[in-house]
Write a structure and sequence with these properties.
By secondary structure, the chain is mainly α. It contains 21 helices and two strands. Helix 9 runs antiparallel to helix 10 (198-207), helix 11 packs antiparallel against helix 12 and helix 13 runs antiparallel to helix 14 (263-275).
């Protein structure tokens, strides 16, 4: 402390001497109308503030602020004085009245700073807004206006303060003020800038009272920025989450048009078409996916399912076989679906002996799926049991003099596409 005081005294004397000399030759350069020696006050303020003697610094700081010359802005006097006031409010003020006194001092400081400091104008505007919000009990409208003015002046202000504004928007939104939409725009912009920050997505989700409203909110956000890929994707994802596949089509079709090589976009679009039973569009989308990722078995399987729905059983089976070939691991699902094709074909044709043989082909195929002990094994065994009375019985073979081990080719008007045989048990 002795060293500090000594240094301070030397500095003050030195500055006082130079100020005296300067004042004689240039009276306006260091003194104001009430003869404040600005250099001495600056020296005292700087030393006390630097050594965190904030109580001693405050009085000298105000003399500096009130008599400031623009050439001293490079020393950041306003930010140094802000540190002093914030510290004293948090650590010295005991009563609400004392805290309010420092709040008013802080706001007065910011007004001074805004008149002088163009470089840090955005900073002081947003700090003023924060003080109005957290210390001053100002009206929501006044605080919101202060934050908006700050962001208009400096769009790159710390996201912490943008979040403060977003929370104010969302908590005080009405149909009249349109703040919910402003909050959506604000958080959408933050999401684009910081896509890895999950807070912004959660804030957007919190704007909606239910999933249907969230769909509408995100649609509005995209409609206002129609070329924005991120907003289109977020909107499509929300539609899919809400099972609104019809609404998901517009943003997904926009995305594949702008980025035709993005597999994820095509996959979601193909799935939406399939859910809506827009079969021709779904087929085209899955065929595009096959060109983009020829080794993905799911694309072949989905095409097979669509062709089965259309009654094109032969085409469906060809894609089931491709699905099985696209994987090196045993996969019971395409085999299970193949058995369904045979069962469907027999059910659509009749119940003659050859139809029973087709049911037997279905059972044999279900047995193959069950033998893999995969996810479909239980369902396959259930179908085997369900078809027990539909397959040829021993008497069917006996009356036709067909012996065990005989191969029976599946043929006939309904079954020309099958080209398979069964072995009599």
């Amino acid at each position: 402390m002795k060293t500090i005081k000594t240094t301070l005294l030397i500095t003050i004397l030195s500055l006082a001497f130079s100020a005296n000399y300067s004042a004689k030759n240039h009276p306006s350069s260091t003194t104001s109308s009430d003869s404040v020696n600005i250099l001495v006050e600056m020296s005292l303020f700087w030393e006390y503030q630097k050594n965190k003697d904030y109580e001693s610094a405050e009085g000298h700081g105000w003399k500096v602020i009130e008599n400031l010359k623009t050439e001293f802005l490079k020393y950041k006097p306003f930010k140094k004085m802000e540190e002093v006031i914030w510290h004293l409010r948090e650590n010295k003020a005991q009563t609400n009245e004392e805290k309010q006194e420092y709040t008013e001092k802080c706001l007065r400081l910011y007004e001074k700073a805004l008149n002088y400091d163009e470089v840090d104008k955005g900073y002081f505007l947003v700090r003023k807004a924060y003080v109005l919000e957290t210390w001053n009990n100002s009206s929501v409208e006044e605080v919101v206006e202060a934050y908006e003015t700050a962001f208009e002046t400096d769009p790159e202000i710390d996201p912490f303060y943008k979040d403060r504004l977003g929370i104010l928007y969302s908590q005080n939104a009405t149909d009249e003020n349109g703040w919910k939409l402003k909050a959506l725009d604000l958080y959408s912009a933050l999401t684009e800038k910081e896509p890895e920050n999950s807070v912004w997505i959660s804030r957007i989700d919190g704007l909606a009272e239910n999933l249907d409203e969230l769909v509408e909110i995100r649609k509005i956000a995209w409609d206002l920025d129609k070329t924005n890929l991120e907003k289109a994707y977020v909107y499509s994802e929300t539609c899919i989450k809400a099972q609104m596949f019809e609404k998901a089509l517009e943003p997904l079709e926009f995305l594949v048009e702008k980025n035709p090589d993005v597999i994820n976009y095509w996959r979601k679009l193909a799935n939406a078409y399939q859910k809506l039973e827009r079969n021709d569009d779904a087929i085209k989308a899955y065929k595009t996916l096959i060109n983009l990722e020829p080794n993905n078995r799911e694309n072949y399987l989905n095409l097979a399912i669509i062709y089965q729905r259309l009654g094109q059983l032969s085409v469906s089976r060809s894609y089931l076989q491709k699905a099985g070939d696209a994987t090196s691991e045993p996969w019971d699902l395409p085999i299970f679906y193949e058995a369904q094709l045979y069962e469907q074909a027999a059910r659509n044709c009749g119940f003659e002996f050859i139809d029973k043989c087709v049911y037997q082909l279905a059972v044999d195929t279900y047995k193959k799926a069950a033998s893999l002990n995969g996810p479909q094994s239980g369902a396959a065994r259930d179908r085997i049991a369900a078809l027990a009375n539909s397959v040829p019985q021993p008497e069917d073979y006996f009356f036709r003099n067909i012996k065990s081990g005989t191969s029976i080719k599946i043929e006939g008007n309904c079954y020309g596409w099958i080209n398979r045989s069964i072995i009599v048990p």
